[in-house]
Fold these 2 entries.
Entry 1:
Amino acid sequence: QIVIHEDANATAQGIAARLITSIADAIAARGVAHVVVTGGSLGIATLVAVAQNPANIAVNWSAVHFWWGDERFVAADSADRNAVQAEPLFAALDSLGLERANVHMTGDSDSYASAEDAAAAYTQLLAEEASDGAANPVFDVLMLGMGPDSHVASLFPNHTRSDELGAIAVHDSPKPPPHRVSLTMSTINTAREVWLLVSGAEKAPALAAAQHEVNELAVPASAVQGTEATRWLIDRSAATLL
Ligand code: 6PG
């Protein structure tokens, strides 16, 4: 599915509305919702829109688990961390019942000696929160930004890849900072729904390439696929080459 909104702000608002409804549906069906959030400008704008949307009172936030698709392996209080950028938004949901123990962070360089250690800890955390001894929870919605090079999470073209379930350390990232922790593509593709959040004209070629053919190594975004749905939630300027 491709949904084209007028601009980045409309895209963020549309995704937020969709997310609130999807979380309420997941809780109604299974009593819990596992949601993977993303950094990047559109990912953070989406969280702002969720925090500000009056319909957010319709969700029982105490039943929601938040995960990150990737995180930068830097100091815990670094402005580069997705978690730091998202903190005010999680704070806004605190008053609506969000349990901080359910906001699952990938490791930072204050807590772990290496990105490998942080990735191993995140992999273990995923397994602990999964039911029936599975490798990770079944994510209801997994959101991803996409870079102009078609990277998703911290899976860059012709760079790190792994078929394992869980998280991996990424070094020499083409986009700074160099050290990161990322879910693997195999893990991303266990989600019921994967949503790709894309805005801006500079993303148009990568978006077109991702629709063209599946090539995980050259075009990571092309390999993303939810088990129930894969939704491209994009703006008009990103859609010009479709
Ligand atoms: C990173 C970024 C990156 C981002 C995409 C989309 O880890 O370096 O967070 O992965 O999510 O590049 O970002 P925008 O929405 O800002 O274009």
Note: The chain has six helices and nine strands.
Entry 2:
Amino acid sequence: MQDWFDLAKKMDSLVLEAAATAGLEDTFTADIRTADPRFGDLQANGALPYAKRNKANPRQIGQSIVDLLEKNEDLTSKVEITLSGPGFINFKFKADFLQDWLKTFSGSEQLKKAAAHLQENETVVVDYSSPNTAKQMHIGHLRSLIIGESICKLLAFCGAKVIRDNHIGDWGTAYGRLFYAYKRFLDEENLEANPLGELERLYKLGSKLATEDEEVVKESREELVKLQSEDPEAMALWEQVNGHSIDGIKRVYELFDISFDHYLGESFYRNMVEQVYKELEESGLGEESEGAWVVFHPEHKRYATQPFMYRKSDGASNYATTDLATMLYRAEHFKASSIIIETDFRQKDHFEQLELTTQKWFEKTGRTFPKFSHVFHGTIMGENGKAMASRTGEPVLLKDLIAESIERAEKIVREKNDEKIAKGQAALAEEEIVAAAKVIGTSSIRYAELSQNRTSDYVFAWDKLLSFEGNTAPYLLYAATRIKSIFRNFEAADLENLADKASNIETDEELALARKILGFVGVLQQTVETLRPHLLCTYLFELAGAYSSFYNANKVIVPEADIQSRRLMLCQRTLDVLETGLGLLGIPTLERM
Ligand code: ARG
């Protein structure tokens, strides 16, 4: 089987072999990656860094390797080899190779098999969304949820065992005031209808009353003390409140079809903090500073003087303590080989310090430190250039955001449907309109999120994200339905075994599309390595573009059976990759829209 990864691996060893034959030292690395499409499909970039280290001419080094590779007939039958820039070695797949690949890689399962070794044997705990309890989910909660979920899907597709862990903030000081109000002013009906809304109302009410009345402050504090000392009655109430809170959070997740394996929030780790104190002190990492316990990192330019505080001067634990315990639990209990936490960029310092501290702590205690990534994101801006808010100045609630998106999508679908009717084309049935609006509405929000480089801020603009043109969900969904509509002209039997009936691809557009289709696995690799889903989005947008150029220039339905078969095969493979890729972004395709 012609496997892209096998080929990439083979390139790697062939380039290394050639480098050795050419007399280069073994510090030379091939550094195979996806190439700039103007030059080829794969590229070996190792000559430049090697030349820099050895004060040599990169072009000469590249040429010496190319000369040797050219002698390998097995290789030259598959690829054209060229040299560009400062010694980049480019490999461009020949038409036969592309054709073979298209024949072999049909369907999502095949693609999955090709990708499955990327994360083989990895167990990854992904901590995302992780909101604080008793608060409604709003636009500020969107990015972590959507990006985190896509990362989970990507990793699982690439063979990892993925554990979705929601590290909810469920053990804060807010509970005193919340309990005070909950006991006195609970509106049962509202709790049933909108749990998070009611809890948030009660918390705000408790806080307001506390500013007006000393007695409320006192009673709230007593509630909190009882909870922190794990008084059974307080714990029962806490469990009740928490249950309602998770219930409310899940209702929002359902709108996006997302569910978690675990809800191990901050409270779960409260009894592990003693172990953290003890181990950090005994290992000599922790030290007392002004009554608090901290870890300094002398090798770091900021954390040498700005320590990581894990025990406050009043003796209480904090966010750092529970996170240290969390790292330990994920490493030991889940046997995580990798831990990913997705939050906004403001927590960067916290997680950098957490990583440094845990690394040293594990090293001193003979534990293996898993790979750790803090995947962070920027802010969603409104069209006025400020952080996005609703008319009242409050952050927009996620459930309202989705409802609005679906409503807007429905309007667009109806308009398009009316156009179809006016042109005498087959119209959508009422249920189809409603179903399409739901998919387009939620997918547009998802895609707007995922298509942006996560580390940048982005402007949330309805017209843009719901547009049928440009790098948007509606554009890609529409591209998929267009391909499906071609297949509707055929009987199922006509669409089977196309590869056997197909002649070789040959037009420029066919070749360009085939190349793009084949690029999927490489893009997947890059996306998973960098944990940046926008790379996959950009690719899918380009794939749809390559398909469009192909479709506009090459008739699919033609009298020559072999040509028709190969073009239908290209349509099928495009759809496979498009559906697989969109699926990894959490976007299902539609039959019609
Ligand atoms: N609850 C936190 C917040 O709302 C995010 C938690 C992220 N995960 C963690 N292990 N600290 O900002």
Note: The chain is about 55% helix and 10% strand.
